[in-house]
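[Meeting: bench + compute handoff]

Bench side (C.D.) handed over the final construct sequence. Compute side (W.E.) agreed to return the predicted structure before the next meeting so the bench team could plan truncations. Sequence as handed over:
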Amino acid sequence: MYNVKTYNAIARAGLDRFTDQYALNQSDNPDAYLIRSVNLRDQELPTNLKVIARCGAGYNNVPLHKATANGTAVFNTPGSNANAVKELVIAMLIIASRKLFSAAKYAGQNRGADISTRTEAEKTQFNGTELLGKTLAVIGVGHVGALVAHAASDLGMHVVGYDPYLSADDAWHIPTSTVRAHSLTEAIAQADYVTVHVPKNDETTHLIGAAELAQMRPGTVLLNFARLGIVDNDAVVAALDNGQLDRYMTDFGDDAILNRPDVLVTPHLGGSTVQAEDNGAVQGVNTIMNFLETGNVQFSINLPTLQVPFSTCYRLTLMHENIPNMVGQIATTLAASGINIEGMSNAAKKNEAYTIIDVNAKPSVAAIDQLTQIAAVQRVRLLANPADLK
């Protein structure tokens, strides 16, 4: 029996996928956390916690170093809310180009018998521009950015994409009409609209700052529906004041940008659809069950991807530091315990490594304890093949 603790409102579509081998919120020392936006940074992680699954793409509410030291794998659910964010971004492009909010506010304040005549005469102040033929720079063309690029292309926009970390898999999802920029400057220099879709980390904090804003064409519209802090809001205010930016649209409130007619702030609505919440919950639950039952890893933040068919009776998994001779020490320890290795797979991600060892004889408690005592090993798990338990 596995124990799972949930935070926030997790969609029933996901929770219903847990089998009878999982108990929800019945232990303070669970095997797994299933979360959305709860801030875990100041919390102590339970010693038994093996996995945290975040229902959503962002993970800045999870203390990665603390989790890794605890032997806890951290996962997100990339792509689960990508369509929801894409639709919101496209809506904001249309709202910005047609001045829809200003026009609706004006019309809503008019009354009287001559409203039709007056609005007809005065509506020219809300004349907008069509998106057809305009240029959109998409900064980050992963799950969300690729969908935005497709939708913008379908609207007749010219799309320029920039992503120095684009994977081969992600590249397959970008429309062929997207022009690849080789630098951020190249991407934004001729754009009418700029939208950012990159994760928040040290490299992307203030990715769009004063220098980048100065390189944009006067009158550019900037959109940030990725994360607070990727755009320097103080620099945005200055760019709006001097006319470099025409409008700023974002999903993240900040004192610096409040109460301005040229800024539109939505209350973190990017992934707030029924479908996106269902998708994230389902993907998060599937991730927890797959990791706990097979040890296989995909979409982990702190572990490398490693997926190995589980064909033996037992499996050992080890989280450990990525340093020389770790695999050698592990193999030697098992050999000394009389355990024959049927298969071994190892992969690394920066300073962390992960090893899967398949065996047909069940290792003793003493053997597992010896593996645990190897310096730089954070967690050892023994798994029985789920197929053998049915």
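W.E. noted at the follow-up: The domain at 304-382 is CATH 3.30.70.260 (Alpha-Beta Plaits). C.D. will use this when planning the next construct.
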